[in-house]
Each structure stands twice: as structure tokens, then as C-alpha cells.
Amino acid sequence: MENQILDGKALSLRIREEIRLEILTGLAEGKPRPGLATILVGQDPASEVYVRNKRRACEAAGLVNEHIELPADAGQQQLLQQVQAYNEDPAIHGILVQLPLPKGLDYDENQVLKTILPEKDVDGFHPLNQGALMQGNLAPRPCTPKGIMVLLKEAGLEDLSGKKAVVVGRSNIVGKPIALMLLERNATVTICHSRTKDLEAEIKSADVVVAAVGVPQLVRGEWIRPGATVIDVGINRGADGKLVGDVDFETAKKTARKITPVPGGVGPMTIAMLLRNTVEAAWN
Ligand code: NAD
Q1: How many A from CA of 243 to the centre of ligand 1?
Q2: CATH code for the domain of 80
Q3: How distant, in Å, are the alpha carbons of 228, 251, 253, 257 from that of 4?
Q4: Ligand 1 atom closest to Cα of 270?
């Protein structure tokens, strides 16, 4: 069997170039330049890298990026005021508050997410947008699962009728929304999590595996059914400082039909979908 890497980096660059050209065309037609506001609270090094990459991608595609950094102890009220100011700013079509917010202070992430106007919620985390996803309605969708669906389409898996998908992880940002999106594409979906009894047996039955756990190489290559497609969302720092996923890539790629690498798989697609959501928020 020919094994194939699902190259999210290359695909995301193609999509970002498409978006750049769409923006040029849109501007020529008199549409507004899409604008994304990014808010970073505190100095978490991983969050700093994520936000920097998102900002660079915006600028390269021709979106406006307004960025604000608040000190870790700025507090909930100041953060909410900043979100409110962007809600009212007509040049800003998307608002992203980088999560997680600093621990041990009075931040309430749910309240912050609820304060972003649903139509400017380009992360797709507002409860109304999450509800819309559950009902199968159009609304901004979370970027990571949205990117995974594009990767699956690229892998020839647009319709998942008759396929079994196993999602490992039940977070609001990846596990639950990707399960709903796979269901929407007609997969038979199982969600596994930390209390699942026999993860190995579940994964062995899957045509599509989505691992979003945060445990390095939890999913063993021997568990992958021959011909399955494997999407690795995990971003973990190995003992040697290198990034590793939730799947043991070297062994899994021997059996998988298609597999995403870490880095270079899901991560770059998340950023491309953030740009896509911002353009949609500006123009739809
Ligand atoms: P999370 O940290 O909120 O939750 C982890 C989930 O894994 C939980 O639902 C838990 O039940 C489950 N879990 C924990 N241990 C388990 C085990 N031994 N067996 C089965 N399930 C187990 O999840 P998250 O925020 O979705 O993040 C998951 C991973 O994905 C992290 O590594 C994160 O960095 C990464 N991530 C990557 C991107 C990207 O763009 N590539 C985006 C979001 C998250």
C-alpha cells in the first residue's frame, strides 16, 4: 500500500494564496478590506508564537490586523472593554482572544467568548455559533475542525457515508465540534476520552481517526487499521524539545492510507481557516 502524507502546510499555503487573490478581487469590486483584531493577554510563550503566526498570515494575505497586548494582570473588565471596542469598530470583522487566559487571576473565558459579537466570532467559540453548528446551520465554525474537514476532502473523503470515524478528545474547540462535522458528512462517529475503556479497540475499528488529546504518541501505530486516514491534532513538546503529535507517526504511517504530520499538518490549516472565517465575516 502506498502511504501518503497529508501535507497541511502545502495545502494551507495554497488556500492562503487563494484568499490573497480573493481579497484583491473583492477590493477592486469595492468590498471592505477584511480586518482581524487579535488580543493577547500575558506572556505565555506558546500563545505568543501562535498569535505571531496568525498576524503574519493576515498581513501576507492582505487582511488588516489590529493587535493589542494586555499585561497578565489587566483583569477581566479591561479585557471585556477591549473586546467591546472591537465589537463597535466597523473596520474589524473578526475578533480573536488568544486562549488560554492567564491562570490564577479573575478571568472568565466563557464570559469573554460570549462578549464577542457572534458575527465577529471568527474562532467559532461563541455559544450561539456552537449551537448553530449543532443544528447544522451556517455560522462561523471553529478553525481547527474546519481545517480538518478540508484536509479530509483533500484526502478524497468528502462524503463519509458508511465510514466509521473515531475522535479522541472531547474539548469544545476540537473534539466535540469535529465530531459534529464528521456526522454532518455522514460518518458514524465515536468520541473517546480519558474515561474510555478500550481506546485501542475503538481506534482499531476506525476508517478515520482524529486525535486531539495532548498526550505525546498516545495512539500507537499498531492500532491503525490498514487503509485508515489519521488526523493528528496534538501539539506536544518531546523530551528533545521537538514537536510531536498524539499519534506515533513513524509506525502509524506504515499502515495509514493518509496521515498528517506534526508539525505541518493540522496547525497550518487552523491559521488558513482563521483567514477564511474573517473574510466570510467581512463579506457575507
Ligand atoms: P484538551 O486539552 O481540552 O482536552 C484533552 C482531551 O483529551 C480531553 O477531552 C480528555 O478527555 C482527552 N484525554 C486525555 N487523556 C486521554 C487519554 N489517555 N485517552 C483518551 N483521551 C484522553 O484538548 P484540546 O484543547 O482539544 O487539545 C488537544 C491537543 O490538540 C493539544 O495537544 C493541543 O495543543 C492541540 N491543539 C492543536 C491545534 C492545532 O491547530 N493544531 C488546535 C487546538 C489544539
Answers
A1: 15
A2: 3.40.50.10860
A3: 11, 13, 8, 6
A4: 40
